[in-house]
Write the structure tokens for this entry.
Amino acid sequence: MTTNTQLFPYFQPIVGSANGAIVGYEALARQIDANGNIKSAGELFIHPDISDKKLIEWDRSVRRQAFQKFKALPNNAYLTINISAAWIDYVDDFNALPTLLMLNEFDIDPSRIVIEITETEGDLDKLVKAVAMYRKQGLKIAIDDFGAGFSQLERVMAIQPDIIKLDMQLFQNAARGGVETDVVHLLSRLAKRTGCRIVCEGVETNEDFLFGLSCGAQYMQGYLFSPATVDFQDSKRYHAQISELRNIFLNQALAKEDYKNQFIERTRKLMFYLQKMVMKTNFSLSELATELFENSGILHFYLCDNHGNQISPNFNFSNNAWIADATQLGFNWAWRPYFYEALALKADNDCCRIVISERYRDFSTDMLCKTFALCLNDSRVLLVDFVADWL
């Protein structure tokens, strides 16, 4: 493996979901192969026969070239530079970090630079120290491949990054459905709650972009717009394309909301029907009309006292018939948010409002469901579980 290879930067645009403009670029190392074709230099940086010393030399050379070219970019776009956490172990003087020296040399505003931490190796204490120095000078910090492993969660807690880039493989799998979809939505909520901006990379299709919007991603990056190129592009180049995609997303979201609202309205009527029936002095399952609940998505309903104790069996609806199951009689659900939220509405004299839970897996049926909760009076709460796929 030769180490005389010359590397140089290409720049992949990062677009903003809200303004439709190119908001930044990621600098990526490129090389020329034996046939004269330009290709990624990524394989070099994972080659076992190339020393860290040589890799760091290459990396800093590409970084210097990127800064030199970025200096001439006339707008306010930012530049993301990848830095391996493992290489920070080789830094002797944290007051003279190479990236900061380069920025000073080229007179580049540090607030336009994002340091993207790659790899999971490296001394965490040294990494935190380096990040503190970058932040002190005004640079922003990004975590790459978020969701690829627990070590990234540990790093997020230690560094508290400004930007989180979702793991590309996880994101692409999630955009196509399955359990990964829930994982990405969960990671996105975590990122937003910690004040991080979210970048989805590996956006290759319209469906990828639309899924990114559903995750609340502020920024997108991928071949749907452009591969990495040698030159910077007009900031408005993809404005029309993004505007059209946002309209598609809005129309799809409105259709989903309309379906959900119709379902919720039908469910409200069922809830108030059940309220009327169970409030009878001599309530009997045989009095419930089964035809009202056909194709409703209902799993079961039950009653709790105002301390959260289940005081009735589960009244299961299966094969268009009601069956009582006392297995969970005496269980306590006071710790579930939908229970105490419904109880709080009663305290505020707003007892007619129905509380709807987040989606979760039902204890008895192992199905994904949502619970609808309604206070009946000062002593009882009605809880009804519906299959989550209906929502």
